[in-house]
Automatic annotation (TrEMBL), chain A:
It comes from Fraxinus pennsylvanica. InterPro entries: AUX/IAA_dom (IPR033389), AUX_IAA (IPR003311). This is Auxin-responsive protein. One of its GO terms (cellular component) is nucleus. The keyword Magnesium does not apply. Homodimers and heterodimers. GO terms for biological process: auxin-activated signaling pathway; regulation of DNA-templated transcription. The lineage of its organism: Eukaryota, Viridiplantae, Streptophyta, Embryophyta, Tracheophyta. SUPFAM superfamilies: CAD & PB1 domains. Aux/IAA proteins are short-lived transcriptional factors that function as repressors of early auxin response genes at low auxin concentrations. The keyword Transcription applies. Residues 17-224 form the AUX/IAA domain.
TrEMBL record, chain B:
Residues 37-76 form the COI1 F-box domain. One of its GO terms (biological process) is SCF-dependent proteasomal ubiquitin-dependent protein catabolic process. Residues 1-32 are annotated as: Disordered. This is Transport inhibitor response 1-like protein. Keywords: Auxin signaling pathway, Nucleus, Ubl conjugation pathway. The lineage of its organism: Eukaryota, Viridiplantae, Streptophyta, Embryophyta, Tracheophyta. Pathway: Protein modification; protein ubiquitination. Residues 14-23 have a biased composition (Polar residues). It is found in: Nucleus. InterPro entries: COI1_F-box, Leu-rich_rpt_Cys-con_subtyp, LRR_dom_sf, Transp_inhibit. Residues 98-142 form the Transport inhibitor response domain.
């Protein structure tokens, strides 16, 4: 079940009008079994926070929490401990948490220096974000920050250097055929590429904007990406 | 005809000829006792018109029916603490002249994802009623309500003289709605969006303000996470001579901030946006003189923003530090070393918000410099249970020793001691709000290993003005005993992962006569504790119990005994609802009217008992459980 509906808000409203349900017209409700998108804050975030690996294993189906309170935060797979985080604890509002995720990298770098801000959009997400690529040292760092910003963001697998192995076509196809989200970017040539295909420094220098797409939609990029790689090597 | 039904002519205070007069027995023979009508007029002119506090007005309305009616006709500001406590039409039937309204919706724990997103708190039903009855509405304040773009459009059309719109922790609308407000509300003076979730509809709403001079006094949009047409904003600021409060979002760079500041040196409240360079700057291009821009703002007393701060720019604010009464650095991940040169100049500071990145050392600097501090909030950079934690009892102690006038504190930390909390209770007797969040669950005093009972006990005992308390750390029933014993003025209490037995909650419900709002999560309080509050629930705005040990039967029993309450029961899982002994969440609140009809969709099943408004629903799936209610005259009805 898609956590964040792709439909535009207005479309959703029309759907609500025709749907048979109990309650006053105009009141909130559930559209077709999906959670009504209510933005960043709210229960959707709760349900989104889970181990990315677990999501892949259980399939796209339900997002029911087996353990209602103890769930694993997507942060865990990137940094810190593997202790399960409790829903809504510590009681810090989500917009503070997501901002801090970006800023923490800032403090580790020591701040200063020219910024390299790029817009980040995600398919189905109701808002855009900006990240300063100079704040990160590697693809892993970037994925960590993006993961915190977009809680339902699911990363494809990366090797330890954070570069995808393009020569292994089958591995790539697995990722793209799944329902995972993959990070893509627009480079200086205006081409859309899969993130991770070039060394980090080169990526920072050539990235104009980021877009986190559904794997199935990013499939078309793969051949092009491979083309570019072959030309470079 | 009786005095009760005939309403006196209030406008212009015209005098009426009295039907009868009484002559006093003795004394001055010229004195004539006024008639009941004249008494009422006197009351209205000399008393009610001056009563602004809603508490005073509530009291006045209880004197007798005449006063009730007179008060209802003269009240202009309305406060609805829980949007479901009363129906909109009951309100519009009683009060006729409302100019300002404040409505609060969801309980606070909804901020932490503890409530399903479709729970409710819609503005729409209120809007419908007010669009008919309060066309002269000037001020709208909403907190934790669901507001749609359509709602904003209707409000803009229905309230032609709307002057103030303040939306705090709201959601459901986007920049589309903002565009409508900007375009249609010609008299808008105050437009404040605070901590709200606003979707980016990719609309240039700033350009929608009318082209002529505006009467804007306050424009706050720092929570709007979408790009702004800067040129349009610059022109807007230039044609808003009354603008005093401006809070920018993180898409505004420091260069752009500079341009705005030099156009609006009259600002008193400024939110600085990102406070870093976002654009690509050509090599060798001159940086604007940020210091002079700040120096020109001679009236600036409140500074916030710093959403993506480049700490190198922080020194630009030096010229205003000496005047600041409020400084919010709670998005600025800066160290103690970076904070010190700023804070040491802020002698007049009364409100300070920061991140724990400033560490205990930074707080010591605050303590040394800010002798007038009233409110401190320290937020965590890492909101995790077992992170490093740069602030501790050391910082708390330092603050308590330096800032003796402290009234309100919110402090996130990883470790704390009873001694420091006790010290604060003695050093800061003026404390009204004490909220300590030790982020590790059940964490004891890290020096002695003892529970945090004594610390919180000292707070309730020594801080005699305390009305709001949030507890944390390892706490036994004893802590609640203290609170019940000493917390006689306590109105708001927040509890998490605390207590041993039902006694804990019993102490609270039996001991705290002023308790109005009680939110508890993950604490072992069960049905017998729940019943201990039956005498008090009508005096409360709400009580929230989640992941406690309250059973469905217990909730039903409360509902049965107190027909004036709505008891909402929320189950997280479809399976759990039948098999689980304990309910996941219980949210009860007093209500004058029928249970709400906009609860999330539910399946109809035959009920086992008769009670008022018992809901069970799961996030994202249909509810099970029927709503059977009793009307005030006792008849039962099914409501959907």
């Amino acid at each position: 079940m898609a956590m964040i509906s792709k439909e535009h808000k207005k479309e959703k409203l029309e759907f609500e009008e025709t749907e048979l349900r109990l309650g006053l017209p105009g009141g909130g409700g559930i559209v077709n079994g999906d959670l009504v998108k209510n933005g960043k804050r709210g229960y959707t975030e709760t349900v989104d926070l889970k181990l990315n690996l677990a999501l892949k294993e259980t399939g796209k189906g339900e997002n029911l929490q087996k353990e209602k309170n103890l769930i694993s935060c997507s942060n865990d797979s990137v940094k810190h401990t593997h202790k399960a985080q409790v829903v809504g604890w510590p009681p810090v509002r989500s917009f503070r948490k997501s901002l801090m995720a970006v800023q923490k990298s800032n403090s580790e770098e020591g701040g200063g220096g020219a910024a390299s801000f790029v817009k980040v959009s995600m398919d189905g997400a109701p808002y855009l974000r900006k990240v300063d690529l100079n704040m990160y040292k590697s693809y892993q760092d970037l994925y960590g920050a993006l993961g915190k910003m977009f809680s339902s963001f699911t990363m494809g697998k990366c090797d330890s250097q954070g570069m995808m192995d393009f020569m292994n076509e089958r591995k790539l196809m697995d990722v793209l055929n799944g329902s995972d989200f993959v990070p893509t970017y627009e480079d200086k040539d205006g081409d859309w590429m899969l993130v991770g295909d070039v060394p980090w420094g080169m990526f920072v220098g050539s990235c104009n904007r980021l877009c986190i797409m559904k794997g199935t939609e990013a499939i078309g990029l793969a051949p092009r990406a491979m083309e570019k790689c072959k030309n470079r090597s | 005809m009786s005095e009760d039904e005939e309403l006196p002519d209030l406008v212009g205070g015209s005098t009426r000829s009295s039907n009868s007069t009484a002559v006093s027995g003795g004394g001055d023979q010229n004195y004539v006792s006024p008639s009941p009508d004249q008494v009422l007029e006197n009351v209205i002119e000399n008393v009610l018109y001056f009563l602004t506090s809603r508490h005073d007005r509530n009291a006045a309305s209880l004197v007798c029916k005449s006063w009730y009616h007179a008060e209802a006709l003269t009240r202009s500001e309305l406060f609805i603490g829980n949007c479901y406590s009363v129906s909109p039409c009951r309100v519009t039937n009683r009060f006729k002249l409302i100019k300002a309204i404040a409505i609060k919706g969801k309980p606070r724990f909804s901020d932490f994802s503890l409530l399903p997103p479709d729970w409710g708190a819609h503005f729409a039903p209120w809007l419908r009623a007010m669009a008919v009855s309060y066309r002269a509405l000037e001020k709208v304040y909403l907190k934790r309500m669901c507001v749609s773009d359509e709602d904003l459009a209707i409000a803009a059309h229905s309230f032609p003289i709307l002057k103030e719109l303040v939306l705090v922790c709201c959601e459901g609308f986007g920049t589309d709605g903002l565009a409508i407000v900007a375009r249609e509300c010609r008299h808008i003076r105050v437009l404040e969006l605070v901590d709200s979730d606003i979707t980016d509809d990719e609309v240039d709403w700033i350009s929608c303000f009318p082209d002529d001079v505006t009467c804007l006094e306050s424009l706050i949009f720092d929570c709007v996470e979408s790009p702004i047409n800067f040129e349009a904003l610059e022109r807007l600021v230039a044609r808003s001579p009354s603008l005093k409060k401006l809070r920018l979002n993180s898409y505004i760079s420091i260069r752009q901030l500079y341009c705005l500041m030099i156009r609006a040196p009259q600002l008193t409240h400024l939110g600085t946006g990102s406070f870093s360079t976002l654009e690509i700057v050509a090599q060798g291009e001159q940086e604007p003189d940020y210091i002079s821009a700040f120096a020109a703002c001679k009236s600036l007393i409140c500074l916030s923003g710093f959403k993506d701060i480049n700490p190198e720019y922080l020194s630009a604010i030096y010229p205003v530090c000496g005047n600041l009464t409020s400084l919010n650095l709670s998005y600025a991940n800066i160290s103690a070393e970076q904070l010190k040169p700023v804070i040491c100049q802020c002698h007049k500071l009364q409100t300070f918000w920061a991140l724990d990145s400033v560490s205990d050392e930074g707080l010591q600097a605050v303590s040394a410099a800010c002798k007038d501090l009233r409110e401190l909030r320290v937020f965590p950079v890492e909101a995790l249970e077992d992170a490093e934690g740069p602030v501790s009892e050391v910082g708390l102690l330092a603050i308590s020793e330096g800032c003796r006038k402290l009234q309100s504190i919110l402090y996130f930390c990883q470790r704390m001691t009873n001694a420091a909390v006790v010290a604060m209770s003695k050093n800061c007797p003026d404390l009204v709000v004490f909220r300590l969040c030790i982020m590790g669950r059940h964490r004891p005093d890290h020096v002695t290993g003892e529970p945090m009972d004594e610390g919180f006990g000292a707070i309730v005992k020594n801080c005699k003005k305390l009305t709001r308390l949030a507890v944390s750390g390892l706490l036994t029933d004893r802590a609640f005993n203290y609170i019940g014993q000493y917390g006689k003025l306590l109105r708001t209490l927040s509890v998490a992962f605390a207590g041993n037995t039902d006694l804990g909650l019993k102490y609270l419900l039996e001991g705290c006569p002023k308790l109005l709002k009680l939110e508890i999560r993950d604490s072992p309080f069960g049905d017998s504790a729940l019943f201990a509050g039956l005498h008090h629930y009508y005096n409360m705005r709400f009580m929230w119990l989640s992941s406690c040990k309250v059973t469905r039967h217990g909730c039903e029993e409360v509902a049965r005994q107190l027909p004036g309450l709505v008891v909402e029961v929320i189950a997280l899982n479809e399976e759990d609802k039948e098999t689980n002994e304990y309910v996941d969440t219980m949210y009860l609140y007093r209500s004058l009217d029928r249970p709400r009809a906009d609860a999330p969709r539910m399946m109809v099943r035959p009920p086992l008992i008769v009670g008022k408004a018992l809901y069970k629903y799961k996030a994202g799936l249909p509810l099970a459980g029927l709503k059977i209610s009793r009307s005030p005259c006792g008849s039962m009805y099914l409501s959907s």
